[in-house]
UniProtKB/TrEMBL annotation:
<comment type="similarity">
    <text>Belongs to the archaeal Rpo11/eukaryotic RPB11/RPC19 RNA polymerase subunit family.</text>
</comment>
<dbReference type="GO" id="GO:0003677">
    <property type="term" value="F:DNA binding"/>
</dbReference>
<comment type="function">
    <text>DNA-dependent RNA polymerase (RNAP) catalyzes the transcription of DNA into RNA using the four ribonucleoside triphosphates as substrates.</text>
</comment>
<dbReference type="GO" id="GO:0003899">
    <property type="term" value="F:DNA-directed RNA polymerase activity"/>
</dbReference>
<dbReference type="InterPro" id="IPR036603">
    <property type="entry name" value="RBP11-like"/>
</dbReference>
<dbReference type="GO" id="GO:0046983">
    <property type="term" value="F:protein dimerization activity"/>
</dbReference>
<protein>
    <recommendedName>
        <fullName>DNA-directed RNA polymerase subunit Rpo11</fullName>
        <ecNumber>2.7.7.6</ecNumber>
    </recommendedName>
</protein>
<feature type="domain" description="DNA-directed RNA polymerase RBP11-like dimerisation">
    <location>
        <begin position="13"/>
        <end position="85"/>
    </location>
</feature>
<dbReference type="InterPro" id="IPR009025">
    <property type="entry name" value="RBP11-like_dimer"/>
</dbReference>
<dbReference type="InterPro" id="IPR022905">
    <property type="entry name" value="Rpo11-like"/>
</dbReference>
<feature type="coiled-coil region">
    <location>
        <begin position="66"/>
        <end position="93"/>
    </location>
</feature>
<dbReference type="GO" id="GO:0000428">
    <property type="term" value="C:DNA-directed RNA polymerase complex"/>
</dbReference>
<keyword id="KW-0963">Cytoplasm</keyword>
<dbReference type="InterPro" id="IPR008193">
    <property type="entry name" value="RNA_pol_Rpb11_13-16kDa_CS"/>
</dbReference>
<keyword id="KW-0175">Coiled coil</keyword>
<keyword id="KW-0240">DNA-directed RNA polymerase</keyword>
<comment type="subunit">
    <text>Part of the RNA polymerase complex.</text>
</comment>
Length: 95
């Protein structure tokens, strides 16, 4: 994954996310919406075969969209580590 800053305007950013698609962007968008400091988070993919997803994040006044993105990424890691532990336990219990 590679992030490219397309635009920064006050409390909002627009980023291209290279190497990802709807699956990752939708999960990230949902995680950003869980943060009460985020006003809006959305993404679009003009053409799935030709374009990279573009994510838009706008936060409340005095907050940082970069920090919101970092918080969301950390929360995703925590969530997936939890899923991994539960799956490993379930598979171990089946033996």
């Amino acid at each position: 994954m590679e992030l490219e800053l397309v635009e920064k305007c006050g409390t909002a950013v627009r980023l291209k996310i290279r190497g990802e698609g709807h699956t990752f962007c939708n999960v990230l968008r949902k995680k950003l919406h869980e943060d009460d400091r985020v006003e809006t988070a959305a993404y679009s993919i003009d053409h799935p075969l030709l374009e990279h997803p573009e994510m838009y994040i706008k936060v409340k006044k005095g907050k940082s969209p970069k920090r919101a993105l970092i918080r969301a990424a950390k929360k995703l890691v925590e969530d997936y580590e939890e899923v991994q532990k539960k799956m490993e336990k379930a598979l171990k219990d089946r033996k």
